[in-house]
Structures are given as structure tokens and as C-alpha cells.
Design a protein that fits this description.
Elements lengths: L1 H25 E6 L3 E10 L3 E6 L2 E6 L3 E5 L7 E9 L5 E9 L3 E6 L2 E6 L31 E12 L8 E10 L4 E2 L3 E13 L4 E16 L7 E16 L4 E20 L2 E13 L4 E14 L1
Antiparallel strand pairs: 1-2, 1-5, 2-3, 2-6, 3-4, 6-7, 7-8, 8-9, 10-11, 10-18, 11-13, 12-13, 13-14, 14-15, 15-16, 16-17, 17-18
């Protein structure tokens, strides 16, 4: 019985220590050198980086940008600015904006709330209000939840094959969708695209309405969101039409495509993609291949 009671005490002590250490590890106030401050949960801590979870997203912060981390401050995910106000007598007061009237401003400081007459402020423009947000450039691409992506793109391609001299180039554009439920580990993605290309010539015009399903692999190098690259392979069918002044011929032919690109430009929920695209359409009598640039923009839903 004594051994059993002793075991329960050890388990209770272990549970207490686990909860205590977990609270110490995860809840923190992160203050940047520019005065931005965030209440967030720390995920991992290395010599150069601090990973945090803030508003259900994982961010990688560089310690060279951080002024200090205070693990004693916890709470719901929020953000604010620290302002340093200089008074006419030479003293400085650091705190977070609380409220303001026509002739006074109130800061929350380490000693409590402090109300200062505006006439005493030497640098009133230094007062910062509002709630900052962590930049999407700091998002950890390896740890984000999959998002459905919807986008548009434009193509400028050089044609290859027996009709190259008559139809040297194709241009046009299309739309694509990448559903979140067809994403694996934020690396592999199945998507669908539809595009229309036109190849004008001196005696007529080729047009291609192509629908494809594609598999895409995404890779971020050195944990840098700017170094975000992708490669994809697609397969589908193309409605090929050749129109002259007198006749129209049409057919449905298989199509394959290959792309190698970069997608490191991100702002808000938008993302830019630039790639080198190769596409071939296999007709009964000959193949039509094209290669060139594709530029697109997508929104993460």
C-alpha cells in the first residue's frame, strides 16, 4: 500500500512538473527591435531561430530581429506596439498605448497605467497605436495547413514541329485550381487546369483548348519562403482546331505538359508563379510541341 501511495505521489509530481514546464515553454511575449510585440506560443528554439504559433499559423522568427522574449507573459494570441516617449525634461517612458483624450495619453507600463499630458511630450509622433501582424514572408512553409488555391495564368510559347515556320508561336492563358484535400504534407499537390492557346499564321489559325490534371511537387530551400520552387507534370486532352478563310478542321487529341517554376513572391493571400512550360499535343499525323514562359497569380482560399 505504501509503495502504491508513493507511486501516486511521484506521478502527481511528474504531472505538475510537466504542466509547469509546458507553460514555461509555450506561452511568451516576443518583442521585436522595431517595437512590435506578440503574445504567441513557442514551438521550437534554436541558436538563430525561434518558431512560434500565432493565430493558428507557424512562423519562423530570426533572433537577430528580436529584442527579447518574456515567458512570464501569456494569454490569447494578440499583438501591440511598444512606444518610447521622450518628455521635455529629458526622461523617457516606455509602454503600450492604452487610451487617448484631447489633452492626455495613457500608456500601460511595467509599473502600471501612466497618464501623460500631451504638452509634456517632446516627440508625440513616436506614439504607436494599433495591432501589427506577422508578415506572411515569415510563415514556415513546412508546417502550414493545406489551403485550396485558385489562380489564373498567361502563356507565351514557341512552337516546334513541321508547322513551326507557318505558326511560330502560341499565346493565351487559363485557370487552375488546387484543392486542399488533394495536398500531401504541403509538398505534393494534385491540381486541375484549363487553358486556351492561339497560334496565328499567314493563312490560318491553330487554337488549342486543353484540360489537364497535374501532379506538382513543391520544395522550399533553406527554410526561406523566397526560395520556393515547384515542378509538375500534367496529362489530359486538347480540342485542336485549324481555321482558314474557307475551312475548319477539329479533333480531340491527348496532351502532356511539364513545368519547372518559382513561386517565392507572396503577399496577403496571393502568390505569384513564374515557370518554364513545355507542352505537347499528339495528333494522328504529327505532334505539336511548344515551350516558353508562363506567369500566373493565385489566391489561397
Amino acid at each position: 500500500m505504501k509503495n502504491r501511495t508513493h507511486s501516486f505521489r511521484i506521478l502527481n509530481l511528474f504531472a505538475f512538473l510537466l504542466i509547469f514546464l509546458s507553460n514555461r515553454l509555450f506561452g511568451a511575449e516576443i518583442v521585436f527591435s522595431n517595437g512590435e510585440a506578440y503574445i504567441a506560443e513557442t514551438v521550437s528554439d534554436t541558436e538563430k531561430q525561434l518558431k512560434v504559433k500565432w493565430k493558428d499559423k507557424i512562423y519562423t522568427l530570426y533572433k537577430s530581429d528580436i529584442a527579447h522574449v518574456d515567458y512570464s507573459k501569456k494569454g490569447e494570441d494578440t499583438s501591440y506596439y511598444y512606444s518610447t516617449l521622450e518628455l521635455h525634461d529629458g526622461s523617457r517612458i516606455k509602454g503600450v498605448f492604452a487610451e487617448e483624450s484631447s489633452d492626455e495619453v495613457t500608456l500601460k507600463t511595467e509599473l502600471g497605467f501612466l497618464t501623460i499630458p500631451k504638452t509634456n511630450l517632446k516627440n508625440p509622433s513616436a506614439l504607436r497605436k494599433g495591432s501589427p501582424s506577422l508578415s506572411d514572408a515569415l510563415l514556415d512553409p513546412e508546417a502550414q495547413h493545406p489551403e485550396t488555391k485558385l489562380g489564373v495564368y498567361g502563356d507565351l510559347l514557341i512552337n516546334f514541329g513541321p508547322n513551326r515556320n507557318l505558326f511560330p508561336a502560341s499565346y493565351g492563358g487559363g485557370v487552375f485550381i488546387e484543392p486542399a484535400f488533394l495536398n500531401w504534407n504541403n509538398k505534393w499537390q494534385i491540381g486541375f487546369r484549363s487553358d486556351y492557346l492561339s497560334a496565328p499564321g499567314p493563312n490560318g489559325n491553330f487554337s488549342f483548348l486543353t484540360n489537364q490534371v497535374y501532379a506538382q511537387y513543391n520544395k522550399v530551400y533553406k527554410n526561406d519562403p523566397f526560395l520556393d520552387f515547384f515542378i509538375n507534370v500534367g496529362a489530359g486532352v486538347s480540342d485542336v482546331r485549324y481555321v482558314t478563310g474557307y475551312t475548319t478542321s477539329a479533333g480531340i487529341d491527348p496532351a502532356l505538359s511539364f513545368q519547372l517554376g518559382w513561386q517565392g513572391i507572396k503577399f496577403s493571400n496571393f502568390q505569384v508563379r513564374l515557370s518554364w512550360k513545355n507542352q505537347c499535343i499528339f495528333e494522328r499525323t504529327s505532334d505539336i510541341c511548344m515551350s516558353g514562359l508562363e506567369a500566373g497569380i493565385l489566391v489561397r482560399l
